[in-house]
Write the structure tokens for this entry.
Amino acid sequence: MTTPTNNAVEAKIRDFLAERIVAVCAKDVDALMAHHGPAVRTFDLVEPLQYVGVEAIRKRAEEWFSNFEGPIEYETRDVRVHADGGVAFCHGLHHVKGMSKDGTKIDMWWRHTECLRQIGDKWLIVHEHSSVPFDTASGKVSFELKP
Amino acid sequence: MTTPTNNAVEAKIRDFLAERIVAVCAKDVDALMAHHGPAVRTFDLVEPLQYVGVEAIRKRAEEWFSNFEGPIEYETRDVRVHADGGVAFCHGLHHVKGMSKDGTKIDMWWRHTECLRQIGDKWLIVHEHSSVPFDTASGKVSFELKP
């Protein structure tokens, strides 16, 4: 696209994404939730169709973290940021590695879209969408995909 | 959130979404693709992880439409639009009903996020994300969810 994104805003949003990665690796729910707006609507990897409101999303994050035994490794790839005025979005591929409490190795890539609004001098998440696609032939979740 | 979205822009983007529904119901690939920017990146319901560029997305739309025998019914629910400056996003629940070529009834809700930039007086899709969540207990796609 030809419209440039404001570089200062893009830098701020990339910092914000980096903070989220640190929060996940530290399993720090409070730090992870510091950027969510109160009316945030999340389309998560797992059902139901949507989580609405910061409390529902906090509960889901607690469940997610509690599923890991030991450390979480987290990386993002090919993140693109668009921002203008008080609206921004970014999208990229996310990857988590670790071990679940039942001893299963977790090593999964998924797609992540983050949508934000600027409230005062702070950027808050108003919508996020995480997912793994499925395979039409088998109807199964494509957990093994790599970029 | 407290920051208002520009109402005229919101109306334009809702018109645009309505046009897309008409395009899908008519299985009109050209009409559907009229709003995609050339470098669009799509996270689709089905694998791979991403489709990049308008040609890849056109091919995928052709495959999707060709899977239907007879009409497609399409509705959206609870679509929220945020726009400021030349950046906008919207998110909602989408529902399609129809019959596949192999005689299987299709009746599926999914989550849809659309991210746009204004280029001149036109809004173009630069990113879209469609997905169905999965069930953690079974590891299966949650095709049967309803809002």
